[in-house]
Amino acid sequence: MINVFEVPEGRLSETISAWEAARDYLEEQPGYVSTELHRALAEDARFALVNVAIWRSVDDFMAASRAMAENDLFPEVEGLGVNPALYRVIEGAE
To answer: Model confidence over 50-78: pLDDT tens digits?
Structure first.
């Protein structure tokens, strides 16, 4: 799963805290493997943060995401744009 974040000005710290809360919940869910949050080097980057998470299966990810949403566990950040999508690796360096 890759999720790119459009972070409103002045909301970076709040967004990172929200991501940490979600991570803390999701890492305890069945099928979770790992996650990394990346911060753009350029201050004017459209996507200030990019989250890359690895899950054992699509079903595990979907179940955990549903549970998180149903329990309202991702703190709201005013103006934050999130764009999660599932991807499959098709090429990579060893």
So the answer is: 999 999 999 999 999 999 989 888 888 99
